[in-house]
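Reviewers of the previous submission asked for a worked example of the structure-prediction workflow described in the proposal, so we include one complete record here. The input consisted solely of the amino acid sequence. No template or homolog information was supplied to the procedure at any stage.
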Amino acid sequence: MQISKCLFPVAGYGTRFLPATKAIPKEMLPILTKPLIQYGVEEAISAGITTMAMVTNKYKSAIQQHFEPHFELEKSISGAKSGLLAEVNEIIQTCDFTYVEQPQMLGLGQAIYTGKNLLGNEDFAVILPDDLCTNSAASVLKQMTGVAAKYPDCCIVAIEEVPLESVNKYGIIAGEELEKGIFRVNNMVEKPAPEQALSNLAIIGRYILTPEIFAVLENTPADKNGEIQITDALLTLAKQGKVIAYQFQGKRFDCGSVQGFLNANNYFAKKAAFNP
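From that input alone, the workflow returned the following structure tokens.
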């Protein structure tokens, strides 16, 4: 099945970037001259997806405005600057955008469930824009759609190796390696202490989920912090053999952290020989 919809959980407040994110959504912070959210949408497009579903909040109208025409601005720029909006204008013409507000931030699982009515009864992708991924070949999500085609009726999660001392920042998986870099998950845990980690294979912000996930989320209890974790819901499906982990090819930047954001800007500046 061709995956046609991608969910973007973008309702968080971005508190690690305050005061910059008091009025500007974290997802609109730029890597060079392009906001994080646009990189995510472009990755979804690279995987053949044309419907972008945004789970947002009432303070993030800038995201919606970014993906709408701005005729006054276009009239005001000319000459060398006239092409600066070409990429985002092509996205606007190519894609459909839908939005729903998340009333409370109670975990990634709840954010995904909030988008249920935007997605219908079909497989869908999830991109967390904080995780900016890049490579010279197929995008991470494009790679994952190929894995999904080989393992129908399974959820696919992207994973990478992380230092053992960092496992407490991620969902961590264990499983049977079916082929190089592809695992059938049999256990997973959210943010374990290093001494309790199942492995050093960490889930990053790319998922392909089956609609079965919504029924599971309905019955997934909140954790000790009152949040519903997608890792806990996926564990239910993993116990049925329905979760595949894919060790993707490419480079990831954790742009949810200030250091990762700076690293991404430095990397893309060097790659583009950027001269402001």
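The chain has one domain: 5-271. We consider this example representative of the routine output the project will generate in years two and three.
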